[in-house]
Design goal:
Dehydroquinate synthase-like, alpha domain, alpha/beta, 6-stranded parallel β-sheet, Rossmann fold, 382 residues, two-stranded antiparallel ribbon, single chain, globular
Length: 382
């Protein structure tokens, strides 16, 4: 195994009764918070009144900032920063899925920065300070509740970039699986694939390929996500399945899968950000289509063959590809961008934008522009 450093400061309260601790935990964050949430789900599942009541019991004032959408926008973050400064808040509370949490993280670090918060995402500056962040998770998938990553879309340029900083770890995250019961099956599937992809990309690109506990952990996570996602397609209100998916998605991108494996790359994620940033496509759906194309573009890849053996128990390449494709079909995924109605004429500009992201991520040396374009063409046609 390679040497590593690991840091995970987030406190997790998991289970049906986790929100009972909300008044106590919020009071540790501050007296006045910016409450960031999405559009309607917080009301539909009765969470709005529950959080208002918890804050009132703790003597905490919450400044509401709703309306965050999927593929969160830079313009919304800037509005949130202005509101947080004007109201002089002590902390940020995110209630929702990854988009809401990523927005909250951007506001938290942008609060103290005099320049454009987008500088952080373009790697022109690095956040050294942020408001304390609390999370009430309602959608499993991104893992943002247990990591230090934020992803935003610049709505002017349609570019989707990510930020990573130690100041972005939430102080506390509440994970109640019952809050995900109302998530539609399609978005449940998108979240499941996003979580799977966080592990898969590390597994197939890892520098250290020898036997180690981290590899075994990744295999276990991928098996659980695949099997649980199938169950949730049939029984979306199965508590144990929802709990398993929620915890798997949190573990998938909290840093545990990187320990001792050396260098790795998120090439598929980087390329997909170009798609969802431009067309507002569900991130997990775009990842599914691109991952299938990437697998088909890399025949006889030793780590892919290992994935098929370890996760599916399959030793034949073609059978492994077919099994993966069948899983996507069980999730009701389209298998090409053409099926989604994306314009083929945009492939060149998408390739250019994707290569720009790869350059910012310092991953362009691992793949050429022509390979990126070939992958996108494969994903388009299926």
């Amino acid at each position: 195994m390679k040497d590593f450093e690991f840091f995970l400061p987030t406190k997790v309260l998991f289970g049906k009764d986790s929100l009972k601790s909300l008044p106590r935990e919020l009071s540790r964050l501050g007296k006045k918070g910016l409450w960031v949430f999405g559009r309607s789900s917080v009301y539909k599942i009765g969470l709005y009144e529950k959080i208002k009541s918890a804050a009132s019991k703790a003597g905490i004032s919450l400044v509401e900032f709703g309306g965050v959408k999927a593929n969160p926008l830079l313009s919304k973050v800037k509005q949130g920063i202005d509101l947080a400064r004007n109201q002089e808040v002590d902390f940020v509370l995110a209630t929702g899925g990854g988009s809401v949490i990523d927005t909250a993280k951007a506001i938290a670090c942008g609060y103290f920065y005099e320049g454009d918060v987008w500088d952080f995402y373009e790697k022109k500056a690095y956040p050294r300070k942020a408001l304390p962040i609390g999370v009430v998770l309602t959608v499993a998938g991104t893992g943002s509740e247990l990591n230090n990553i934020s992803v935003l879309v610049n709505d002017e340029t349609k570019v989707k970039f990510s930020l990573r900083s130690h100041v972005l770890f939430p102080r506390v995250s509440f994970l109640d699986p019952t809050l995900t019961f109302s998530v539609p099956v399609d978005y449940t599937a998108y979240g499941a694939f996003d979580a799977f992809s966080h592990v898969f990309e590390v597994f197939v690109s890892r520098e250290f390929a020898g036997p180690c506990i981290t590899k075994d952990f990744m295999v276990t996570l991928m098996k659980n996500i695949i099997n649980t996602s199938k169950k949730l397609m049939r029984t979306p209100k199965d508590y144990d399945a929802r709990a398993n998916m929620m915890w798997c998605s949190s573990l998938a991108l909290c840093g545990l899968t990187k320990l001792g494996i050396g260098a790795y790359r998120f090439l598929i994620h980087a390329i997909e950000h170009t798609i969802s940033g431009r067309y507002d496509l569900p991130h997990g759906l775009g990842l599914g289509i691109l991952t299938l194309a990437w697998i088909k573009e890399n025949p006889k890849n030793p780590k892919l063959e290992e994935f098929f053996r370890e996760v599916f128990g399959i030793y034949e390449w073609e059978q492994g590809v077919k099994e993966f494709e069948n899983w996507l079909k069980e999730l009701n995924f389209k298998l090409s961008f053409k099926e989604l109605g994306l314009p083929e004429k945009d492939i060149t500009i998408l390739s250019e934008n994707a290569y720009q992201i790869l350059t910012v991520w310092k991953a362009s040396k691992d793949i050429t522009f022509d390979q990126v374009k070939s992958l996108l063409l494969k994903a388009y046609h299926g």
